[in-house]
Amino acid sequence: MKAWSGRFEKTTDALTDSLNASISFDCRLYEEDITGSIAHAGMLGAQGIIEAEEADKIIACLKDILADIKAGKIEFKQENEDIHMNVEAILIERIGDTGKRLHTARSRNDQVALDIRLYLKKEIKEIRGLTLNLLSIILKKAESGKDVIMPSYTHLQRAQPTSFAHYMMAYANMLRRDVTRLEDCLERMDEMPLGSGALTSTTYPIDRWRVARELGFSRITENSIDGVSDRDFSIELLSDLSLLMMHLSRFSEEIILWCSWEFKFVELDDAFATGSSIMPQKKNPDIPELVRGKTGRVYGSLISLLTVMKALPLAYNKDMQEDKEPVFDAVDTVKACLPVFSAMLDTMTILPENMRAAAAKGFINATDCADYLVKKGLPFRDAYKLVGMLVNHCIKTGKTLETLSMDEYKEMSDVFDTDVYDYINLDNCVQARIAEGGPSKPSVEKQIASVKEFLNKRGETA
Asked: Which residues are part of the catalytic machinery?
């Protein structure tokens, strides 16, 4: 018999039960549900709303139920709809009428709002830790690549010389923002909604702050209607996870390109690559490709929940049962991607000679050549046009700026002198970019130190 069946004369249709039930996916909230119920029962007893002995009996039984679930001794029933009613049904089955007192001053609406917050607070901390670990691996790669020259790109065309460390620190900054977004989300989520009731709280003299403290919340929700109808925290988390996955996807795309014979900047460890069923020579970057693909899955979760919530009147509506599956799937996907991506990156071998060879082609020191002329007194636009003519000449003659003779330089402009060769040297080009945030070694070391400080404040070491 349904807990709410008193109002009804007929039983629900089997198809209704199947669509209505959420136990198939919200069963993962069993520990949060029982933890919240233990805190609620303790408060009811302390406030004299139920007898203290009854509260103790409920709490003891709930602990036994939790242990039995963890031991695999309990099978949840679809007829009880969700994790909340399944736990309550088991409680009543074991201790009788005393178990029926647990739901005093509480609704499933504020109960589920509590459970999902408790669950996501835990998951955010785990995802944050995984992201910090990846950040520390990126930092280690940057430390080892400060002297490795490579081309940087715009429009996927070679643009200007940089260092591998500088390139890595771009992703380090993205992930640092991801960490702070997760922390901000966690801070906003840190409100305890239990006590909101169905939507207008309760007539019982409950102590919401006691429950909040016991469950590790820093504050309580201030409005009971908002307390049960708010899913901003889930949407915010999905947005944060989408950004995190977008950064992993961009990084994955780089690695996929770098693994190709056309680039060959890096070599993936055999443990993080796969072969072909027909082409024996293949070594495929499946891990970054999967991460890139799964990014769309996380995006889909965000769009799903935004769509569910976009036109719901206050307060709770059954549509909101659809909040959990996209959140669970996104959390699971991110937690699956981060560790394997981190391990792949950690074992990835960089190929400095190939990076350097690519940097030597494509005239990526052309801007430096133009800057050389500007420092000799030419207006930048005149210098820009002059170097463009030099590049055109190089293309026609099969030369580079480094291999042009001084006579060829002088034919273009008397401003050129032998010091131009030092100015367009790739190492010098990188080290001359002394502006903060640039690829010069002092600048990159400052960037690394900044992220190290960020990690150290969070108990991570690089």
From this structure: 155, 276
